[in-house]
Amino acid sequence: MLTEGGIRLFNAPPAYRGGFFAATLAFDAQDQTLGGDGLWISQAVASPFERAVRVAGGWYDKTINLQEHYESGLAVGTIDRVGSYALRGKDYDATAWAASEGIPVSLAFAANGRVTATEGGRADGGTRLFSMSVNRATGLFSGYLRAEYDVGGRTIRKATTYRGVLTPVRAEESDPEGRGFFLMNGESYDFTIEGN
Question: What pTM value is reported for the model?
Fold first, then answer.
């Protein structure tokens, strides 16, 4: 819905079980930045939540050379925790996961926009725990994040997909270069993409 104050968004996915996401977006054509505020509510029985959100974004040029723009590289902000692994009524906490304190993830961009995880992103033994791809036209990115669990002496790996967006131009330059989120066991986790 377009109003004098900006664009109003409302979405109520079935998975939210009665919850919704609503926000007002305001685009500044002069600064080419996006701002606004919103509310994200889930009424899921197991883990309901209510979050106030701040919308931030900017203009993304599909002709941009990501390799030049991010020549110093990027890093995934530390992910403090991920979902547990449940087996026969018992929950096991993850022993290793991408972008944890022990397994940092740095990102490098090729001229064609492809992204590789460097200087991290792998567990002991070389198992790849992180992947990422970026849509050059929009800045939207996605990929997978794996976590490892020690279950009765066996290493179990569980993967989850994540999504997010890079915002090279931002109203507040101190804000992260991008943000992402993923879902595990019905809970939402978020992370940032930081400049090196």
Answer: 0.73
